[in-house]
Amino acid sequence: MATITRNDCEQNALSKQVKDFAALVPGYIDEMYAAAVDAAAKIAEKDSALVRPSDVYVTGCGDSYCASMAAAPALRALLPGCTVHPVRANDLAGQIPSFMLKKGVLAMGISASGTAQRVLDGMVRAKGSGVFTIALTGNATTPLGKACDSVVALPKPEVVSPTPSVLSYAVSCLGVIFTGVGLALAAGTITKEQAEGYREDAKAYCVACGDLCQEQADDIFALAQELQDCDGFDFVGDDADFATAYFGSCKFAEGFGPFTVYDDSENWEHVNYFIKDTHHMATFAVISKSSPSLSRQLELLPVVEHLERKGVVVTDLPAESIAQKGLHIISLPEAPVSWLAPAANYLALSLLASYMTVLDGEPFFRGFAGPWGK
Amino acid sequence: MNRLDYHSPMVQQAVETPTMLPPIIEASFSDEALRAALPADPSSIKQVILSGCGDSFASGAATYPAFAQLCQLPAQGISALYCGRYTTPAELDGALVILNSISGGVSRVVESARHAKAHGAFTVALTGDPESPLGKECNSVLQLKDMPYMPGTPKVIAYTASCVGQFYLAAKLAQAQGKIDDGEYQDIRHALYRYGTSDLAEVIDEIDETVFGCMDKWAKFDRYTMLGDGGDYGAALFSGFKYPESVGRMANWDDTENFNHVGYFHRELDKIGTAMAISADSPTLQRAVKTAETLCQLGRMVVIATDADRELFPKEAVVCTMPKASYPWMAAGFLHIPLSLLASYPHALEPDMLAPYRKKQGVWDNANISRLQDSHIEVL
Lengths: 374, 380
Fold this sequence. Notes:
CATH class of the largest domain in chain B: Alpha Beta
CATH architecture of the largest domain in chain B: 3-Layer(aba) Sandwich
Largest sheet of chain B: 5 strands, parallel
CATH topology of the largest domain in chain B: Rossmann fold
Oligomer: heterodimer
Order of helices and strands of chain B: HHHEHEHHEHEHEHHHEHEEHEEH
Strand content of chain A: 5-15%
Radius of gyration of chain B: 20 Å
Shape of chain B: globular
Order of helices and strands of chain A: HHEHEHEHEHEHHHEHEHEHEEH
CATH topology of the largest domain in chain A: Rossmann fold
CATH class of the largest domain in chain A: Alpha Beta
Number of helices of chain A: 13
Helix content of chain A: 40-55%
Mean pLDDT of chain B: 94
Number of strands of chain A: 10
Shape of chain A: globular
Helix content of chain B: 40-55%
Number of helices of chain B: 14
Structural class of chain B: alpha/beta
Number of strands of chain B: 10
């Protein structure tokens, strides 16, 4: 059988999204910034109180739920005094008590296609309870767009279907972040110069992440080969880092279908620490230098090493500052603003998922064949 | 095989809940004890956070809807890491923060207590040891008393007691705030006691037989997925935790919608056991039922713990029917019992495995590494 090379792995549409990331995403950011600032200004024109909500709910399904978690720190920073709730679409659709959904609250629903039924259910319920609703979707004519009070149009990356999304995820994360920027600008919490500064910071950071990922592609390919004998993948991160960890687990599941587990760095010590087959288990720790729980995340690393698991650290910390030399380090650039980190720090995990899918010979989404084709 | 021969200490904690629970409730959750756990002015409470690590995190995730529904207050069940390092001043303003830890010695809950207090929250330790670091750190203590002594075994009855205690506290806070009257408060107390004792006693043997009956297949899986929505997600979390703890196998957890976007694509379906916690009164019941149908169409083995009618679910699913709960929030605090049995029997049946918690053998012998009680505490 012919040996699979890195070049072979670069041919699929998941690798291509990672490769194109640095070239495409800055343009998406410009589009979304303009759309979000415009939408927020119109909302403020209607009622200035709407851009100063007491609570913000952000929801989506799958990757879009990840995006809601990833963007939460940005919203907390941009909308001071506002409580931000990244929530599962099922929760907004029914589990959250009605008395919490009321006037003065804002909800953002993410669905690029605008057809995710549970997101639609949640946003309709929220709107019916007096919540002001913003759809982050392809355009105003999608079902979600039509159901909400306002729309921030998301660019639609051209990707061969079906392929696990990376660019759409970028668009979702950044769409929520820049909706937050737009609301803060309309509320007068930040100036136009600050808002434009965030836009330029985001563009520069996305380019830096895309470039550094490509620079590390040989290492990532070697790592993919090394991990081929693993049949369990464990992803650990806290808050926004959890979103990146969880997104990584999604790409693995969608890509080549292995069993994936995920947790925060404290709970991991109480639960997944006890997984028995340590030699066929890889643990991925996503650690941002600016994380409020950095000290706890770093305590995890000697434990992973001691367990003799294959360990991978995805971090913007200097590689030399990680004392556990048996762990594989994937380096990230430092984000210019801490809450921008989750907007692009998932590229290496996505590329790894892509390479492992090719090495494994597995079709994306199981090819929607057999039991998955019903 | 006779299932009674496999009633390990972990199995016993589930099947003997109806006899283990009454002394705990009577010793721990008197009206006086509950009142003493609350602030002098209960009307000062504007929101509620339930938190802990591992099982204790799951118990908050299972029971927060009781606070939301009975007290009509914003409530959330969150991990201690999130509570200590990520909650904002707005989330802690006027908050009742209930920190759950049987030992009371885990760094992260102590850290959460300090962080919450520093931002003006009223903190309650739900613990077996009032003299523990957590007990000493909090404004008040609700002590779990008369817990059966079962060292070295994954906990089930302690989790059940934690859930029940938090339900009692939710009812007491609702009464103290005038959200329910004394009669309703007493009705809830009686309903909780009855559900965990006599009601459960009527069905537990049949559930045990049902669960044991599927072990030919279930015990041979090497990975498990647990699903639930709202409070049922807490039951799913807890039962998922039992697999790494007991047999050392992987488990993950999700809600019934998100599963369709992610875990649906896991391959090697013959290696994965899937279980669901589904309350009859769940607002997302229909989505849960639909997901059960999807799982059966995939050919995955599905076991469902529910207090809803059997007829709602696909005939291929194994259904453990619990008594119908009297309140919409209540079943979520008990649906882990059948699911814990599911996690317990593989442990009892497998003859050559490492002991629970890997018995601190081999690579798990790492006494020199900071893990739980000596993790660095930071108050941000």
